[in-house]
Amino acid sequence: MTQRRPLIAANWKMNGSCELAVQCCETLSQLPASNTEILICPPVIFLNDFPKSDRYQLGAQNVSSEVSGAFTGEISADMLAAAGASYVIIGHSERRALFGDTDTLVLAKTKRAIAAKMTPIVCFGETLTERQQEKTMQVLAQHLDAVYAAHPELLQHSVIAYEPIWAIGTGETASPAQAQAVHAFIRTYLKKYDDAAASKVRIIYGGSVNAENCAALFAQPDIDGGLVGGASLKPAEFAAICLSAQDS
Ligand SMILES: O=C(CO)COP(=O)(O)O
């Protein structure tokens, strides 16, 4: 890791309970103070089950692209911020694949999050077929362009998550070298939008991160933390992952 502040984010997806929230707080509150930023993104219904703490921040897993109005089932950026979310995950591959989150929506949601003073964690990643066809960088470039080409000013307010779709929930992680190569590509590519912001932006890795494989990933120069799914539902393992980021 580098001079950029490490960020370890838990994406609970549609899992968890208020009991897990309580357990998670207790476990994280025992961690020694450090420079690592810890973030929990539970289903929004549980945001209020987390007591305020300087050990962790809270985030959401999605946000409406609209400000307010007749959008049944949606939650606006201002509402999430008022509920205590300081981050929001945008464009997760599950949203893109299952809920129609297009590049256009990802851009609109990113703008809304920033306008509400939240930090968007904007997710990008290739499918297995795209990787096998050696199209990873091309696909990423296209999706990065969709958000940042016309709006380079958004980059300084963003966190980027690289989540290869073939590594999500499969137990198959990108090797540290594979992940580093893509993170370095993303950082270099982003320099054309804003050189200073590209050096500073945190690029976190997601896809089967666990307590065993995290140290080698976090030791890579362009990997600034992790976006953790399954392993974040086990408080002790998530705490171990957070500790590992402190040591790297
Ligand atoms: O999608 C992810 C985080 O957003 C990764 O999920 P897993 O850690 O369960 O593979």
From TrEMBL:
GO molecular function: triose-phosphate isomerase activity
Localization of this protein: Cytoplasm
Chemical reaction(s) catalysed: D-glyceraldehyde 3-phosphate = dihydroxyacetone phosphate
Gene3D superfamilies: Aldolase class I (3.20.20.70)
GO CC terms, sorted: cytosol
Enzyme active site: H92, E163
Residues reported in the UniProt entry to bind substrate: N11, W12, K13, G169, S208, G229, G230
Alphabetized InterPro entries for the sequence: Aldolase_TIM, TIM_sf, TrioseP_Isoase_bac/euk, Triosephosphate_isomerase, Triosephosphate_isomerase_AS
Pathway the protein takes part in: Carbohydrate biosynthesis; gluconeogenesis; Carbohydrate degradation; glycolysis; D-glyceraldehyde 3-phosphate from glycerone phosphate: step 1/1; Carbohydrate metabolism; erythritol degradation
Broad class of where this protein is predominantly found: cytoplasm
EC identifiers of the protein: 5.3.1.1
Keywords: Cytoplasm, Gluconeogenesis, Glycolysis, Isomerase
GO annotation, biological process: gluconeogenesis; glyceraldehyde-3-phosphate biosynthetic process; glycerol catabolic process; glycolytic process
Subunit structure: Homodimer.
Function: Involved in the gluconeogenesis. Catalyzes stereospecifically the conversion of dihydroxyacetone phosphate (DHAP) to D-glyceraldehyde-3-phosphate (G3P).
The family this protein is said to belong to: Belongs to the triosephosphate isomerase family.
This protein's name: Triosephosphate isomerase
Species, as recorded: Rheinheimera riviphila
